[in-house]
Amino acid sequence: MTPHIHAKVGDFAKTVLMPGDPLRAKFIAETYLEDVREISNVRNILAYTGKYQGKPVSVMASGMGMPSIGIYSWELFSVFGVENIIRVGSCGAYTEALQLHDVLLAEKVWSESTFAQTQNGEASPFNAPSTILNQYLTESAKRARTKIHHAIIHSSDVFYRNDHMSFKKIYQEVGAVAVEMESFALFHNARTLNKHAACLLTVSDHLLTNEATTSSKRETGFTQMIEIALGSLQDCA
Ligand code: HPA
User: Fold this and answer.
1) Domains of the chain
2) 181 CA → ligand 1 middle, Å
3) DSSP string spanning the chain?
């Protein structure tokens, strides 16, 4: 039990799928898992453990932003024996090469966040996922015949920017093709604690064209990405 997760050590599987939205965690648990039980609901951050094709797996929401995923991933890795966290989130696209509902796998992440600097003094604006988890996810996507974009991601602390076109500079200078708000902190915590993390994203909105998916699709329209994550369990669980 931690301040933010009221579960017992042993309640979590070694691999946790982590959407931002608690209702998406519920949707994944109810749609895909067998023998599923709710193991924590502090602040409505719902967490479940069950089995997918016989493999134990947990699903827990991260909430939005780096402080939130920073707290939950730290407690999962350091107290609950979790080895792998696969974020399954949404992102905004920075380039016309991406369309709504495309699936991305983060290969590298850039951030202006002070999360790593504050946590342990690391000054690099870049972070990276686990190579081995990314390999499992890439193989799982191939088996599912789902196209994924291997991408550099911008992990941002601010959703509403004064200059809403400032992303063009980040796209040009860093090569980031999409923006979300969690992976930099997740990857930092995993590396710091000698654990594994990866990040799959579905494009939910487009910063060039202003198209956006609907909120009901935010909850249920992410099945391809979720199936890739679940399909990797045969290797990583
Ligand atoms: N900005 C930041 N995070 C996001 C976005 C966005 O446009 N879309 C989905 N996550």
Assistant:
1) 15-236 (3.40.50.1580)
2) 7
3) --SS----TTSS-SEEEE-SSHHHHHHHHHHH-EEEEEEE-GGG--EEEEEETTEEEEEE---SSHHHHHHHHHHHHHTS---EEEEEEEEEE-STT--TT-EEEEEEEE----HHHHHH----SEE---HHHHHHHHHHHHHTT--EEEEEEEE-S-SS-SSTTTHHHHHHHH---EEESSHHHHHHHHHHTT-EEEEEEEEEEETTT--B--HHHHHHS-HHHHHHHHHTHHHH-
